[in-house]
Amino acid sequence: MESQIRTQINQIILKLPENQLKPILEYLRQLEKATVEQLETANLVKKIFEEDAELLKKLAE
User: Fold this and answer.
1) Rounded-to-integer distance, Cα 43 and Cα 47, Å
2) pLDDT in tens, 16-43
3) 1 versus 52: which is more confidently predicted?
4) Is residue 43 situated within a structural domain?
């Protein structure tokens, strides 16, 4: 499974124009430096935003 994911990511990267690669590289470097706790926190926040988007929208109003 991991090999398939790497292959899919590589295929997409190969198709992208050169000017779109720098932000991706910067993002990957940030991920590389992040601790496990930071990644878990980021994933939890992302999950909250995805699951509670409507609630967050109402709260923002």
Assistant:
1) 6
2) 999 999 999 998 998 888 898 998 998 8
3) 52
4) yes
Task: Give the per-residue pLDDT at 48.
Answer: 81
13 assigned to some structural domain = no
In a domain, 6, yes or no: no
Domain count, the chain: 1
Residue 11 counted as domain residue: no
Claim: this prediction has a pTM higher than 0.85: no
Three-state SS sequence of the chain = CHHHHHHHHHHHHHHCCHHHHHHHHHHHHHHHHCCHHHHHHHHHHHHHHHHCHHHHHHHHC
Question: Alpha-carbon torsion 26, 53, 46, 13, what sign?
Answer: negative
